[in-house]
Amino acid sequence: MQMHNSIITMLKKKIFFLTFTFICFSMKAQNVVTETIQIDTNFVTYDVIYTDTLTKGVFSKVIAVFANDTSQIAIEKNYTSNYQNGLYKAYYPSGGLMVKTVYANNKLNGEWTFYDKTGEVAIKGIYKEGIKHKYWAYRYLKCYGRYKNGKKSGRWKCLNTDGGKYITKYPNLYLTGMFDFVRIRRNNPSTNDSIVSQPINDSLISDTNNQIQEIDTFYLSAITYLARNYYIRNRIKIQFTNTKKERKYYDKYFDYKKDLFLFAVSPTIIPLGLPPFLTEPEKLTSDTINTQLTANIEQYKDGFSSHPVRTDLALYQYSTQPNSDMILYFSEVVDNMLRVDIVEFRNRNNESFEDIYKHPNTRKYSVLIYFNQIKDVKAVEYQQKKVE
């Protein structure tokens, strides 16, 4: 009888312990919140528990710890009258500071800094009402420039891993003719004045505000890179010609005063494949692109070859000379890589861009462009074989 009572007592203790543990676990689980932390254009999520709220009048500060390590602070936020205002900090699980920024009325507003795990500043910039604005430094990418109302603007200086420094100039600088044209037509609807500084096809200005339509940043970066790239100018002359006399003819494709490559941009996006890069006589010159292709060759072969033909009329608006015999053709972007074919087709008439590309008289020169995480040009591979 005594043994029976002991067994019952032991079972009761175990049941009580298990019940208590379950209740504590449930209470803890109910307090776990998944927080999303913005890191530039990417996001990370933390499972956190909000522990402390420090309040003084309309001001309050809340602190969250990691759910799997409550000894480490994960996030610190400040509020004024229930609006997120003031300093915001997010930490690595190791305890190091990851993000430090400022909020105003629930929006990022002010200096924003991202630190790597060693404590070094990796990215630093400014937000204005939740939108990137003014100077940004992507130190880990060695890329520096300005944003205007969320869009890259002006001169961006970057380090190309395969060719030293280069400068990318964004549309507000080199598409001035487009904006001049819009302004003149808006103020003088009947004018027939042409814009000598930058010819742009006005028939494709189709939105209600007569503003140039946006295109994917990958394509914009490729266009701006090729438009003002001194190296591509020389490559075209060398690859398309055999004599100095022939090279003189190709001067017509460049505006040397503006340092501008004069090309049309095809609105037709075509599956271009990977040749000739798979059959080059020598090793690819870009180690970055060679590594990417080697590691993911089937993915790139399939990605560049199997996508359907599609049309994006907005691309044509970014032509630096719409009637040029030099035409840029783009593939789809495959894992941050893009193929561009620079196609020469003389004496264009009314052929479609797809027909031009397939025409037996076209001459084609191919370029592979690999982009970094912010969609700027990181590495470029130029076709080695001469154009036939």
Summarize the structure.
By secondary structure, the chain is of the alpha+beta class. Among the domains are: 94 residues, no CATH class; 172 residues, no CATH class. The chain has nine helices and 24 strands.
Structure commentary:
The chain is of the alpha+beta class and 388 residues long. Among the domains are: 32-125, no CATH class; 211-382, no CATH class. The protein is built from nine helices and 24 strands. The protein has a 15-stranded antiparallel sheet that branches. It has a five-stranded mixed sheet with strand order 18-21-22-23-24. It has a two-stranded antiparallel ribbon with strand order 16-17. The N and C termini lie far apart (102 Å).
Low-confidence stretches: 20-30, 172-210
Query: What composes the largest sheet?
Result: 15 strands, antiparallel
Query: What would you report as the Rg, rounded to the nearest angstrom?
Result: 29 Å
* Global morphology: elongated
Give the class from helix and strand content and strand pairing: alpha+beta
Mean pLDDT: 80
Separate helix tally: 9
Percent of residues in helices comes to: 25-40%
Strand-residue fraction? Answer: 35-45%
Task: Give the number of DSSP strands.
Answer: 24
Kindly, what is the distance between the CA atoms of the first and last residues, rounded to a whole number of angstroms? 102 Å
